[in-house]
Every structure is written in structure tokens, then in C-alpha cells.
Specification:
alpha+beta, 119 residues
């Protein structure tokens, strides 16, 4: 997702920008977030370790990261729906290493109500 892209995800629009092209924000509902915590199992770490010896792209990590980000995004959108939002603006991701092999992924933004611009 780039800063200027607005992507409808199910019934809640989501963008990294602070406004939605063609829409006006009628209410700000506050911060919403989605958090997931992921760990890598021993077999996963062994497989990745072997790949590191050879070098190149580590597809297993890419898949793990994509899955964690998507899960955090969906939790955030659920949180937005619970607040009555039909869009989230200023969406961002953050990640924190909680311990060896344990990572928290956070998706957050501002829940808003938007309506199409008139005139």
C-alpha cells in the first residue's frame, strides 16, 4: 500500500493518506489497532538456517511476514467496524521483537466516517 492508494477492504476503506480522494470525512472516531504476535517454530528456524547458508530470498520469512501483516490489518478493520467506521486513514504498520523468535505486528490508524463529496 502506498501513501496515495486507497484500497477498499471488505466494507471498510483503508488508506495510508490522511484523506480519501472523492470523499469527505464527516466524523473522526479515534485510533483503531490490530495486534498479532507470531513465533517461529524450531523446524521453521532450521529450514531458514539452511537457506541462509546458501543465500538468497527467504520465502518462508516473506510468507510469515505477509500473513502477520494481513492478520493485524484484519483485526484493525474489525476494530474500526466496531466503532462504526467506514474508513481508516493514516494507516501504518509497526513491529516489535518481543523475544527470540517472537514478534508483535501492529496495524493502526484513525477510524473515520466518510461520505462522497458533493458538487
Amino acid at each position: 500500500m502506498t501513501g496515495t492508494t486507497m484500497t477498499p477492504v471488505h466494507d471498510v476503506m483503508c488508506t495510508t493518506t490522511l484523506e480519501v480522494d472523492g470523499f469527505e470525512i464527516t466524523r473522526h472516531l479515534g485510533i483503531v489497532r490490530g495486534i498479532t504476535v507470531r513465533t517461529r517454530g524450531a523446524l521453521f528456524q532450521i529450514a531458514v538456517g539452511l537457506r541462509q547458508m546458501v543465500g538468497g530470498r527467504i520465502g518462508a520469512y516473506v510468507e510469515l511476514c505477509e500473513y502477520a501483516r494481513e492478520e493485524a490489518l484484519q483485526y484493525m478493520l474489525t476494530h474500526a467496524r466496531e466503532h462504526g467506521a467506514n474508513a481508516v486513514v493514516g494507516m501504518r504498520y509497526d513491529a516489535t521483537e518481543l523475544g527470540p523468535g517472537i514478534t508483535e505486528v501492529l496495524a493502526y490508524g484513525t477510524a473515520v466516517v466518510v461520505q462522497p463529496k458533493t458538487g
